[in-house]
């Protein structure tokens, strides 16, 4: 029987969500309620469009030559992909039949369970978004505490899975000196982190927010500037971390 799931959209020639040229599948549904989310329409697990593993893989196969030539692969993103465990696992198994490099772009808000253990067998790289180190500030910003996320980071680190840490620089909310110090110390405690990316906050999701909710929660927060990124990068560098300031908008 064909396994069905719900996706929001796909991107066929992504270049910032993992190495090389990547086919990105954005899963529908997210347990976080980030105030800075630019894809507010991904939250509802019943939204997006229903599809099958076979349909997704058939489309991906057309791009394998480009992936192979660039050292790329497939990135499973969202929303939060692990909300659809059965669909995700089935898709991963099919992708590995073609020896495709697979990255999981996740919030890390995942319950440590047997299904996760199985999924991680097929993952080559985890792109882990860490929003904030302060439990209180994290909950205010995303609607959930960060303990599960930090536990997930330690869990995949212990397994030796390559990790890229991503952090959104939001002026006055996530770029304080103390906040950066705590995050730097946490990153330094992990052995499998291969890259740390700073992503600039932007308010381009405002229209979707106002269409769905009637308001935008960060109305008075300015977009991150190049100066904001450089300052944060310099602060992280004080702890010996090599930081990449990505042009990708958060």
UniProtKB/TrEMBL annotation:
EC number: 1.97.1.4
GO cellular component: cytoplasm
Domain Radical SAM core: 16-242
UniProt keyword terms in alphabetical order: 4Fe-4S, Cytoplasm, Iron, Iron-sulfur, Lyase, Metal-binding, Oxidoreductase, Pyruvate, S-adenosyl-L-methionine
Subcellular locations according to the entry: Cytoplasm
Cofactor binding remark: Binds 1 [4Fe-4S] cluster. The cluster is coordinated with 3 cysteines and an exchangeable S-adenosyl-L-methionine.
Cofactor: [4Fe-4S] cluster
Gene3D superfamilies in alphabetical order: Aldolase class I (3.20.20.70)
Keyword flag Cytoplasm: yes
UniProt-listed Pfam families: Radical_SAM (PF04055)
Main location as per UniProt: cytoplasm
GO MF annotation, one: lyase activity
Record's catalysed reaction(s): glycyl-[formate C-acetyltransferase] + reduced [flavodoxin] + S-adenosyl-L-methionine = glycin-2-yl radical-[formate C-acetyltransferase] + semiquinone [flavodoxin] + 5'-deoxyadenosine + L-methionine + H(+)
Top-level class of the enzyme under EC nomenclature: oxidoreductase
InterPro entries, A to Z: Aldolase_TIM (IPR013785), Organic_radical-activating (IPR034457), Organic_radical_activase (IPR012839), PFL1_activating (IPR012838), Radical_activat_CS (IPR001989), rSAM (IPR007197), rSAM_sf (IPR058240)
Functional note: Activation of pyruvate formate-lyase under anaerobic conditions by generation of an organic free radical, using S-adenosylmethionine and reduced flavodoxin as cosubstrates to produce 5'-deoxy-adenosine.
Family of the protein in this entry: Belongs to the organic radical-activating enzymes family.
PANTHER family according to UniProt: PYRUVATE FORMATE-LYASE 1-ACTIVATING ENZYME (PTHR30352:SF5), PYRUVATE FORMATE-LYASE-ACTIVATING ENZYME (PTHR30352)
Name the UniProt record assigns to this protein: Pyruvate formate-lyase-activating enzyme
Organism: Natronincola ferrireducens
């Amino acid at each position: 029987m064909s396994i069905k799931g719900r996706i929001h959209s796909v991107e066929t020639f992504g270049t910032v969500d993992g190495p090389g040229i990547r086919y990105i599948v954005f899963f529908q549904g997210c347990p976080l309620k980030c105030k800075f989310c630019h894809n507010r329409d991904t939250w509802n697990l019943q939204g997006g469009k229903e599809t099958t593993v076979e349909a997704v893989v058939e489309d991906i196969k057309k791009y394998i030559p480009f992936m192979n030539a660039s050292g790329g692969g497939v990135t499973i993103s969202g929303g939060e992909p692990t909300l659809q465990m059965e669909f995700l696992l089935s898709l991963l198994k099919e992708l590995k039949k073609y020896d495709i490099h697979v990255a999981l772009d996740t919030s890390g808000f995942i319950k440590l369970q047997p299904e996760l253990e199985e999924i991680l067998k097929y993952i080559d790289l985890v792109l882990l978004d860490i929003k904030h180190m302060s439990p209180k500030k994290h909950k205010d910003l995303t609607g959930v505490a960060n303990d599960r996320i930090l536990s997930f980071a330690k869990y995949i680190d212990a397994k030796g899975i390559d990790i890229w840490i991503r952090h959104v620089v939001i002026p006055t909310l996530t770029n304080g000196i103390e906040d950066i110090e705590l995050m730097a110390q946490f990153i330094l405690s992990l052995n499998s982190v291969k890259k740390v990316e700073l992503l600039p906050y932007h308010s381009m999701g405002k229209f979707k927010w106002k269409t769905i909710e009637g308001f935008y929660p960060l109305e008075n927060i300015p977009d991150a500037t190049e100066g904001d990124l450089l300052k944060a990068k310099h602060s992280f560098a004080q702890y010996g971390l090599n930081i990449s300031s990505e042009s990708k908008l958060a």
